[in-house]
Amino acid sequence: MDDDRFDAIVVGAGPAGITAARELAAAGLSVVVLERGQYPGSKNVSGGILYRQPTEAFAPGFEAEAPLERPIIEQRYLALTEDALLGGVFRSMKFAEPPYNAYSVLRSEFDQWYAATAEAAGAEIYPEFTIVDLVWENGKVVGVTTGDADGELLAHCVVLADGANSLLAKAAGLHREWQPVDQALIAKELIALPAEKIDDRFALPPGMGAAYEIFGESTWGLLGYGFIYTNKESISIGTGALLQDLIDSGRNVNDMLDRFKRHPAIAPLIAGGETTEYAAHLIPELHVDRLPQVYADGVVVVGDAAGLLNPVNREGANLAMLSGQLAAETIIEARKKGDFSARSLAAYKQRLDQSIILDDMKKVSKMAPFAHDRPHLFTEYPRVAASAALEYLTVDGVSKKEKQKKIAAMFKGLPKRRLLDDAIGALRTQR
Ligand SMILES: Cc1cc2nc3c(=O)[nH]c(=O)nc-3n(C[C@H](O)[C@H](O)[C@H](O)COP(=O)(O)OP(=O)(O)OC[C@H]3O[C@@H](n4cnc5c(N)ncnc54)[C@H](O)[C@@H]3O)c2cc1C
């Protein structure tokens, strides 16, 4: 083999790229990571939820060293109507003691720390390098280029970890440009608030955190959701929806987020806070049957770039890490064989097929079309439920029996056939 080439070039220093780079470097392969941002994580400004158990598998002992915000002890799933908020809360004291289930993190900080672990393993990481194209030799990918005269770098294998709607995977002919129906657009902000205010407003023990997912009016009823995550001294808040629905409805996510923040049930949670960061970002929403090809001669695709995300359970970073690891295992084997052909790299797809990533994606893939075809789940049903709760909880001299009749009439107003169809459809998503 040509020794002046790297064993692997990784494009993108997100969780997928960094995991791949770290595993490869730890196995003794020469690996370089090229990241367009000023530093790893600089393009991932807002907060997110990071699950402990899978992260521990990739970064043992990370809790002692990584910049983490708050352990998440409470999860709320809420529906927002024009004037009400209703839904379910789960707070567990088991989540409030080690081993924690999940943490809120600021990706701009976490990704930097995570990248340093790959450097410590021997990977070279170069920020402020935007890769604009791949380098080909006899129909095989053999490197990447920044587009400058001296911006070409060669390797036996290129790992595309450049995130949602990967332009490079498209350049490699592995997918067509993602369609608006295959991705969601999310606007997110980081709002600074003193820690004690966050504890008070979310009724949290000091240092503990909560995660809210909010449907319905948070997105004007479009398929999508709003979220609020508590960090140490800030709140991550965002909203977004399927790109196709945004286009069809003429809505934009900036207005959607402004409206969400002004809602009387949401505004008090962030009142007096200062917006310190803002970003809009794509999230893959590909049906598992429409996932792109993830390998070709000399190249593999990992993480969001390969559409590997479970939007229903809010699992992106951990699946990205796992795909990075599976890709690295495949490349290490390919290095031993001296064979980076598509045939050899196909083992990465086999690993994905046998992994929890595709298992879970198959499981949740039916849910998005189910919900998309039924906008009334996020609008009409919460409104009826809110009216029923308002009637029941208002003490106004009307007898409870009379109230019960009124509430029954509200639910009777819903088309029975549609209710049945919704129930059957919901059950079918679980098969
Ligand atoms: C608003 C929002 C909230 C989310 N919340 C959660 C959550 O709570 N929990 C969770 O697990 N997941 C969450 N996700 C999903 C999660 O962020 C992604 O699944 C995860 O970051 C994917 O990792 P990745 O390494 O594949 O891609 P990314 O993290 O997107 O990293 C890609 C990297 O490639 C770089 N890059 C792109 N193009 C180039 C190029 N041409 N040259 C060089 N570098 C390039 C980018 O700058 C970036 O650093 C959320 C996503 C969004 C948008």
Structure description:
Helix content is 37%, strand content 25%. It has 431 residues and is of the alpha/beta class. The chain is globular and about 85 Å long. The mean pLDDT is 95.
Largest sheet, in brief, is: 8 strands, mixed
Q: Give the uncertain stretches in residue-range form.
A: none
Overall geometry comes to globular
Q: How many helical elements?
A: 16
Radius of gyration: 23 Å
Into which percentage range does the β-strand content fall?
A: 25-35%
User: How many strands?
Assistant: 17
* Oligomerization status of the protein chains: single chain
Structural class: alpha/beta
Bound compounds, each kind once, are: flavin-adenine dinucleotide
Share in helix = 25-40%
| End-to-end gap | 49 Å
Mean pLDDT across every amino acid position: 95
